[in-house]
Each structure stands twice: as structure tokens, then as C-alpha cells.
Amino acid sequence: MIEYILPKDRPISFISVLDKVRDIIAKVKEEGDKAIIDYTAKFDNYLLSDIKANQDEIKSQASLLDDNVRNAIDIIYDQLTDFHKSMMPPNSGGGKNGIEFGVVWKPIEKVGIYVPGGIKTYPSTLLMAGIPAKIAGVKEIYVATPKEKVDPAIAYISIRLNIRGIYKIGGAQAIAALAYGTESVKKVDKIVGPGNIYVQAAKYLVSENVGIDGIEGPTELVVIADDSANPENVALDLLAQGEHGKTSFLVLISTSEFLVNRIKSMLPNEGNFYIIKVNNIDEAIQIANDIAPEHLSIATSSPLQLLSKISNAGAITLGNTPPALIDYCAGPDHILPTNGWARFKGGITVFDFLKPLSYVISEKPEKNLIKAAMILANYEGFNFHSKSIGARYE
């Protein structure tokens, strides 16, 4: 067993704010728009006149977007579209023992996308969530983002995606409003998107009533590096993910004493940076799989040979590829599992917005199969199940 020093839990966990967030959700459920307006004034420091942006504002704000940014969005839009289209599943069917069966994929009807905001805005998140939702065929897409005036890039992307509504709200109160509905906010079937610990705590709490994509935030990066890695590039990757805030969880695991010392000298004292020296790459992989990070970077001489050994990671970049490429334009989504959730799920795809509807048609099934079903139903004590099957086919 390898010994290494890391916090037992992530430095900042959404579990720590569950009680506060539970109170916010309860107030939104009880008071609706009034609670949203009060919390927005308290936490985001602006007074909402209209919770939902009108079409004139959206069009006006979109027209303010710089041409270079608009062209960049269009290029990235096409790249992400191709990636997510490649994953769309076909309807399938078959048959055996006189039973015809199959699966028809249907989109979720109403989806809410949370786009973090505040001092900065994150139109890339709307691209990452909105494009797979649109490709999947979601009929109604709504966006919640905390901004007194809709960001021009978000306005432009919303028009391209045919977003049904933009709500100028954020935090746990926005998640509660999307989950339960208010006078101004449409209740949705599923909520997706990253955010701070209050947003993630809210998603966790409302998941008993509405679907969520998972827990996405705060940001995490683990880098596995050997002597072949460029220390400046690795340090840049760690610092890049650190831009998401001081709650980011940033880990370097290396076999190289030189790399460890060099990168340590390039990182600030503040922030959640952890550096682990290991004896070999297998030890590094074991630690990375234990952490199950959001982002994993394999900066080694033969990264593809190591890919098969990775079992837990939200998204992986190999060799000299920067994790920031996934954050913006590579194709795979940047809305990724954190808090160890990469042990059982991955990043957002069209499958997050689709439901498999199974169907069966059978007029003359094989007698042995029917008999087997009736025997097992009787064994479990479900006699009417058995009789219901037998009444048709015996």
C-alpha cells in the first residue's frame, strides 16, 4: 500500500454547507420569486426587476458581442457539435423465443442549465451543456446565470441554441427555482452544470425530485508526470485549473525529483496544491485512481500505454496536451464529475439528455420461456404475475 499525504476529503466539500442550502431551498419553495429576489440582492448585490430576460435584451446584448469572440464561438460550436453527434445512439431492436424487443431513445423534455457567473462569465459552459442537449432533441432548454445584464456571449449562444428562457439568477436559489418552479421560473425535469459548493449542494438536495447530471465543482486536476514532461507546461496546467478559485484541488504525482523541485518553485504558496513523489508510474496511477479526479493529465513519455490502466477520471489528456483544451474546444465536455464521482460516471454527453424506452411485442412466445417466467414469479410469491402471463399464452 502506498503512503501519501492528501486530505481525507476534498479541501472544500459541498457536504459542509448542506444545512444552509437546505434552508435556501425551503424558502424558495415557500416564497417563490420573492425569495429569489431577496437572495439575489443579498448574495449577488443587484436588485432584480425581471427574473427572466426578455427577447429584446437578449438580441440587444448579442449584438454587442465582439466579432472575434463570435467567430471563435462559431468554430468551437462546430467542433463540439461533431463530437456529440458522433455519440447519438440509434434505436435498436431484435427478437428471440417469439418475443420482439427493442429500445427507442427519447429526449428529456425540459432541461435547466446552470452557467456560473458573478465577476466572470462562462459562455463555454453553455456551449458544453446546450449543444449535447440540443443534439439529443430536448424541446425546452432554460438557462440560469447570475448576471444583472445578460452576457453578450451567453446571449449569442442562447439564440443559436434556441434557448427558451434565460433567468438572471444564480446560487442555490437558482437550482431550487429550476427544480420546483416559481412564478417566473419554469420547473424542469433535469438540471445540469458546474458551480460552487452551494450550487452543488443544492443539486444534491433537489435530486430527490429532479434529475441532475452529478456533482461538478470545485475544479480538480491530477497530473502524472515523468522526466520527459516539460516542467513549465505542467506548472501552467496546474495554475490554469487554479484560476477557478482557491477551492480548486490540484495534485502533481511524479517519478522525477527534478520535476517535483522545479514545479514546486513555480507554484504559489496559497491554494490547494499537492505534490507527491513516487517511485514508479504504477504507484502514480494507483494514487490517481484512488483520487478519481475531474481532470487527469498523463504527461509521460508513453501516455497511450498507460491509458488502459486508468479506471477513474472525468476526462484525460495525454502527452503534451493541455487539460484546458478540454475546457474550451477539443470536443469532450468540460462539465465533469468531481468529489470522487468519477468512480461511477463521466462527463456530460448526449446520453445525459436521453432516456431509453424499452418495448416488447409478443403474440406467440416459446412455451419454455413462458413456463420459466411463471415458475420464477410463483417462486417470488407473485402469483398474479404468473397468472397474468399464463392467461395469454398457456
Entry keywords:
five-stranded parallel β-sheet; Histidinol_DH_monofunct; 394 residues; metal-binding; Rossmann fold; alpha/beta; globular
Structural notes for this entry:
This protein folds into three domains: 14-212, Rossmann fold (3-Layer(aba) Sandwich); 218-347, Nitrogenase molybdenum iron protein domain (Rossmann fold); 364-391. It is of the alpha/beta class and 394 residues long. The protein is globular. Strand 6, helix 8 (197-206) and strand 7 (211-212) form a beta-alpha-beta unit. It is built from 15 helices and 13 strands. The mean pLDDT is 92. The longest helix has 19 residues, at 67-85. The strands form three sheets. A five-stranded parallel beta sheet has the order 5-4-3-6-7, sandwiched between helices. The chain has a five-stranded parallel beta sheet with strand order 10-9-8-11-12, sandwiched between helices. It has helices at 18-31, 33-44, 55-63, 67-85, 123-136, 152-161, 171-180, 197-206, 231-242, 257-266, 281-291, 303-307, 324-328, 367-379, 383-393; strands spanning 92-96, 99-107, 110-114, 140-144, 165-167, 190-192, 211-212, 220-225, 249-254, 272-277, 295-299, 315-318, 354-361. Catalyzes the sequential NAD-dependent oxidations of L-histidinol to L-histidinaldehyde and then to L-histidine. Substrate binds at residues 219, 241, 244, 295, 327, 380, 385. One of its GO terms (molecular function) is histidinol dehydrogenase activity.
